[in-house]
Write a structure and sequence with these properties.
It is a single chain. The chain has about 425 residues and is α+β, with helices and mostly antiparallel strands. It has 2 domains: about 110 residues, 2-Layer Sandwich (Uridine Diphospho-n-acetylenolpyruvylglucosamine Reductase, domain 3); about 210 residues, 3-Layer(aba) Sandwich (Vanillyl-alcohol Oxidase, Chain A, domain 3), CATH 3.40.462.10. Helix content is about 30%, strand content about 25%. An 8-stranded antiparallel sheet has the order 15-12-14-13-17-18-16-19. Strands 6, 7, 8, 9, 10 and 11 form a 6-stranded antiparallel sheet that branches. A 3-stranded parallel sheet has the order 3-5-4, with no helix packed on it. A hairpin with a 4-residue loop joins strand 6 and strand 7. Helix 4 packs across helix 12 and helix 9 packs antiparallel against helix 10. The longest helix is centred in the middle third of the chain and has 15 residues. The radius of gyration is 21 Å and the shape is globular.
Length: about 425
């Protein structure tokens, strides 16, 4: 079927595919890929900010191929359909006594998109979602259906866990999980100087630690999550995309600051003070099952850039980013987000063979982002940063080859599976240097 236009979540990426397919089975998907003219791309929830899904050829949705297939409680693994969203998988896994080992604070992504772009949470000893993949099924551009794991089609497995859909379309993914567990959330405000004095202990003493820094504020907002044996409280979440009071208030501030940028410093200090007040006092933090504890319902739309820098350079890098954002003269309101991710072994993972800090910056979706992001990206590059594949960056093949030791190995697998570059749109052709 055709579709006039597709947009990503922020609204800045659009596609006008010739055809838009929603297959229901792996066999139907394989047949459609063979018959489709390129570029062949898959649209999950649209939560990538790069033009990774853009296609004027065939665009696929796997929304009809979602849900839990099977679990193995002894091995703590789950096999899921690739079109499942992380939000939908949480309760399904919990019913089987399992939970994802880690996840980010946004859970609207399709699991295949999260895996394919190296999406992650935070935790010094915890890896990306892609690192939890122990196997997957892939429909190749030629219509073949192959199983991939460390023991079967191993090179495709190591390349395909983070591949941006450039090798074919995943249909099923097997994930290493954890027995169901609860997390207690705590945090609060901390002066910037105190943060950097205690950063190592905050990182080492918590399963999950991150901070949010509005650059014009004197304090940061610290958040921790740790395993809890307190009975978890249920969380009632609004349907995806429905505004809560915090969304409404923050959107109003974004709109005001668009036209009154001189208020941004006051607003940032105010939001820091109010954000820390929810942790005030000595009351214990709230305990929730992991799939309820991780996500924050973010409905104020934005565009985002994120780079992973070597963990030892994280503090210097984020201080330099904050100083640049204060002095560059570009209007913005969103905070910097700072997280930890452990090294993994997926060839194009931003965390390949190095422990990392990820630093994210955001811009309200009604405001241009290029000028703000350009200056920050130069700082990320100074520290050897690698971009998140679903978030905005300007790097091309020559830049990326220097950052990834297995880049040429990945490109060889990609060319073998897709010699005609059927899976590559113009953006990905620049990423992989394909004319």
């Amino acid at each position: 079927m055709s579709q006039a236009e597709w947009r990503n979540w922020s609204g800045w990426v659009t596609a006008r595919p010739e055809v838009f397919h929603r297959p229901k089975t792996e066999e139907e998907l394989a047949g459609l890929i063979v018959k489709s003219d390129g570029p062949v791309r898959v649209a999950g929830s649209g939560h990538s900010f790069t033009p990774i899904c853009e296609s004027d050829g065939a665009l696929f949705s796997l929304e009809n191929m979602s849900g839990l297939i099977s679990t193995d409680r002894e091995a703590n693994t789950a096999r899921v359909f690739a079109g499942s969203t992380i939000r939908d998988l949480g309760p399904l896994l919990h019913e089987q006594g399992l939970g994802l080992i880690n996840q980010g604070d946004i859970d609207r992504q399709a699991i295949a998109g999260a895996v394919g772009t190296g999406t992650h949470g935070t935790g010094k000893a915890l890896k990306s979602i892609s690192a939890a993949v122990v196997g997957f099924r892939l429909v190749t551009p030629s219509g073949d259906i192959i199983n991939c794991s460390a023991d079967e089609n191993a090179d495709v497995f190591h390349a395909g866990r983070v591949s941006m859909g450039s090798l074919g379309i995943m249909t099923e993914i097997e994930l290493h999980c954890a027995p169901a567990y609860a997390l207690e959330e705590r945090g609060g405000r901390l002066p910037v100087a105190d943060l950097f004095d205690t950063l190592d202990s905050l990182r080492d003493d918590n399963r999950h630690f991150e901070f949010f820094w509005f650059p014009f504020a004197d304090d940061v907002l610290v958040k921790t999550l740790n395993i809890s044996d307190v009975q978890p409280k249920p969380r009632k979440r609004a349907p995806d995309g429905h505004d809560g009071p915090a969304d409404i208030a923050f959107r109003k501030l974004c709109e005001i600051s668009r036209f009154a940028p001189f208020l941004r410093g006051r607003f940032q200090r105010q939001m820091t003070e109010q954000g820390g007040s929810r942790y005030a006092g000595d009351a214990p933090g709230r305990s929730r099952w992991s799939h309820d504890a991780f996500p924050s319902d973010r409905n104020v739309r934005f565009n985002e850039m994120e780079y992973a820098v070597p963990a030892e350079h994280g503090p210097d890098c984020v201080r330099e980013v904050a100083e640049h954002m204060r002095s560059c003269g570009v209007n913005f309101l969103f905070p910097i987000e700072y997280r930890y991710v452990a090294a993994d072994d997926a060839w194009l993972s931003p965390f390949f063979e190095r422990d990392s800090v990820t630093i994210s910056i955001h811009q309200y979706h009604k405001q241009a982002y290029a000028a703000l992001f350009r200056g920050v990206e130069q700082i990320f590059q100074k520290y050897g940063g690698r971009p998140h594949w679903g978030k905005l960056h300007t790097l091309v093949a020559d830049d990326l080859q220097a950052l990834y030791p297995r880049w040429d190995d990945f490109c060889a697998v990609r060319h073998r599976l897709d010699p005609d570059a059927k899976m590559l749109n113009p953006f990905l052709r620049k990423v992989f240097g394909v004319a």
